[in-house]
Amino acid sequence: MLDLPTEFIEKYQQLLGEEEAQKLVASLQTESKKAYRINSLKFKQKTPKSTDQPVPDIPHAYYGEVSSQDPEWVSGSVYSQDPAAMFPAYIAKVEPGENVLDLCAAPGGKTTALSEALKNKGLLVANEISATRVKALRENLERFGISNALITNNDSEALAKKFPNFFDTILVDAPCSGEGMFRKNPDAITYWSQDYVLTCAERQKDILTEAVKMLKPNGKLIYSTCTFSPEEDEAIVLWLVEKYGMTIEKANHVVSEKVSYGNPSFINSDLEDLKKTLRFWPQDNLGEGQFAAILRMPDEEVEVKSKKKKKQKNRKGLTNEEKGFVKKVLDHFNLPESLQNWEENACVRQDHVFIPAINPSELKGLKIVNNGVELGLLKKNRFEPGHQLAEVLGQVDQENVVELDSSEDYKKYLHGETLRVKTELRGFILVAREGFIFSFGKVTGNGVLKNFYPKGLRILKDE
Ligand SMILES: C[S@@+](CC[C@H](N)C(=O)[O-])C[C@H]1O[C@@H](n2cnc3c(N)ncnc32)[C@H](O)[C@@H]1O
């Protein structure tokens, strides 16, 4: 039984009326809804899990649970996500080729959805301020096989200096008081207070002030929170409208009756357009609490002080000999479109071969966690493919694959063990379970499968 603060209950009695507030409080005492999205960049290989109960409006999303040890998850073919949290990226309606920023991105639920919409074309900058949380963001994007992402670990000010008037779409899924997460994460109740709500609202304005500087004229801002408090929802949208002349757009493709709309009277405003914003209440039985709005910048640039761009240095490409080593490995696999020009685009830095999403010389001063696709490592007279490459190759059909046909072998591989396999294949191969490619491996002459599943991802035996 959740122990909700009296001040919280009274606040929503005032805003919603006795009856609706009672429904909200009762729904918070029930179990949270679990769901997952299928990765559309990979699911042509195989349709994972049951698809009986679709999440309304969201393509390829279903109610149900996925464990982080299931091959569907390990291979990045699905992402577990609260159904309501699927909407902010969905309403962004991102098109392949755009420059997109997810400013508060970890662990990456919305980033993975944005990256699917981009179809590996254009640029996705995924930023997270917390050095701990950015690791999960990197792992999730890697599993999804995303090749056009730059992952950064900066505050919004540092990013705004690098990318003035640059993005077509920016998602700010802001840190908030988390009221919508009370039943999923009861810890959020312990630090809730009305003062905390107001502190969050100030932080949201600080983050958005920087976000706006990075939008192109006429660019789109998606603002979302997982809280009900109007101070962090309608009031922030009103602030953006009044301060920057932004306009609120309706998400025409959201039609489910389980989705509610913003309410200007919550903040004593008469701005009718606030009714175009989206609200998700747990008592409506879709998922957890969420708020989302689409805002459009006016067709003029926000003036931003930025340093003059220095002439870009050419990146350090591969020598013909190095290309030969890489080619020798890549020739055994079918390459997705995003890797087809790898010889022209690959760079090398401290023996790491990668295809950058953005020229590294443009990124001085930022904390870069990953830039594009790491193909692998140059060793003495050979090339060893990296894990991210395996996940990218998993987006297309492959023949050079060893399927682990028992769950015991699969578990052993995830633990990092070496296996003996029956296969005619030799050298670097992709490893799959139930058709889901999730790692590289190397088969030696006597049929021993050497383990290339990264140490940092290995699952301990007693997990
Ligand atoms: C609601 S969570 C994001 C969830 C994520 N979008 C997803 O769907 O998986 C908000 C994130 O913002 C980060 N954050 C907090 N302060 C920030 C700031 N000043 N600038 C950027 N991110 C910030 C938090 O560390 C947290 O990871």
From TrEMBL:
The active site is at C226. Residues 1-298 form the SAM-dependent MTase RsmB/NOP-type domain. InterPro entries: Methyltr_RsmF_N (IPR031341), MeTrfase_RsmB-F_NOP2_cat (IPR049560), MeTrfase_RsmB-F_NOP2_dom (IPR001678), Nol1_Nop2_Fmu_2 (IPR027391), Nop2p (IPR011023), RCMT (IPR023267), RsmF_methylt_CI (IPR031340), SAM-dependent_MTases_sf (IPR029063). Belongs to the class I-like SAM-binding methyltransferase superfamily. RsmB/NOP family. This is NOL1 NOP2 sun family protein. Keywords: Cytoplasm, Methyltransferase, RNA-binding, S-adenosyl-L-methionine, Transferase. It holds the Pfam family Methyltranf_PUA. GO terms for molecular function: RNA binding; RNA methyltransferase activity; S-adenosylmethionine-dependent methyltransferase activity. One of its GO terms (biological process) is RNA processing.
